[in-house]
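Appendix B. Chain record.
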Amino acid sequence: METTLVREDAVVGENSLSCLEKYLLRKSWTVEDRCDQASGLVLTVSRSPEGRELTYPHPAYEYPDQNRGQILAETLDRLADIEGRPQTEIRLDMRSA
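Structure tokens predicted for this chain:
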């Protein structure tokens, strides 16, 4: 019997880095993946039409020492600063597109 473990800090559903990336693409941001040579992590660098950058771990890669929930919250805080509105107003839910 195979057991599947779910990390306590896993972020699933409508609030994930993957949904954040889709949200940014809908807002005309460009998305580029890079390998950070110093850390060995695959990162995503998104750029707004105005040239503002938002960097976060690539949604498809999981690293054992990362807290994805915390990373998502911090990334949403940075996005809220860029967009000039409260984080609570940012809706990643794909159904509201």
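Further analysis of this model is presented in Appendix C.
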